[in-house]
Amino acid sequence: MNGTVTAVSSNSEYSFTKPNRAGITLLAGLGVAGDVHAGVTVKHRSRVAQDPTQPNLRQVHLIHEELFAEVAEEGFRVTPGDLGENITTRGVDLLGLPVGTLLRIGDEAVLEVTGLRNPCLQIDAFQDGLLKRVVGRDEAGNIVRKAGIMSVVRVGGVVRPGDRLTVVLPDEPHRPLDRV
């Protein structure tokens, strides 16, 4: 299973959106160099308030570009970096990957998938009503989160738009993604 990186984004300050960059540098065990969410321990404000010593399982946020087309059909305009992701992809079903999947990106970088992003109310502050489009329920009543996946950096490297993304599945049995 292969895909492509369509955009990369980072921000050194806390804000909902992240500006696009020509490239980002991933640092093993930390995240995106210069990004506010990089670190060994959790950096998301709500998580820090709960327990600042938690390991940072949310070092790098990825979103599939296909989501933007899906929400556009309902009148929303979302572009890379708007939802705070670091890497925007095309061609890979990110939400269908199991925990522990490795994502090889470009020449060197390797991410390990840790779970689903748990969307928050800031999405509605960005565009009213968007939260209901990225979080919903399936026919059985289970919560479905569509706002991307989270990962940690196993091998650092530079990632740029146009880089190839290769999926390496973990050994079975696979564990489905849950929020992290």
From TrEMBL:
InterPro entries recorded: MoCF_Sase_C, MOSC_domain, Pyrv_Knase-like_insert_dom_sf
Superkingdom: Bacteria
Domain MOSC: start-end pairs: 19-168
SUPFAM superfamilies, sorted: PK beta-barrel domain-like
Name of this protein: MOSC domain-containing protein
Organism field: Kitasatospora nipponensis
